[in-house]
Backbone:
């Protein structure tokens, strides 16, 4: 059974922090990818579109969107 798409809503502070991670040269690449997934997921609202943009699977996008919302449940808007 498929889970409902985790909708991402970012505060300005969280968005700025994620953008900083993506720009940092010394950041771990897996962390950069996760930050990019969350930033694009807020903008595009479609796992497949995010996956195509970042050349990853839609399942990976969904996984990190759900994990983000598990960490920040107040940011969730469903």
Residues:
């Amino acid at each position: 059974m498929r889970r409902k798409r985790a909708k991402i809503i970012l505060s300005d502070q969280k968005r700025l922090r994620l953008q900083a991670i993506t720009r940092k040269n010394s950041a771990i690449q897996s962390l950069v990818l996760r930050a990019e997934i969350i930033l694009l997921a807020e903008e595009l609202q479609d796992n497949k579109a995010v996956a195509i943009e970042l050349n990853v699977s839609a399942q990976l996008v969904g996984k990190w969107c759900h994990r983000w919302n598990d960490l920040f449940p107040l940011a969730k808007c469903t």
User: Anything to note?
Assistant: The chain has four helices and no strands. The chain has a mean pLDDT of 87. The CA atoms of residues 30 and 36 lie 10 Å apart.
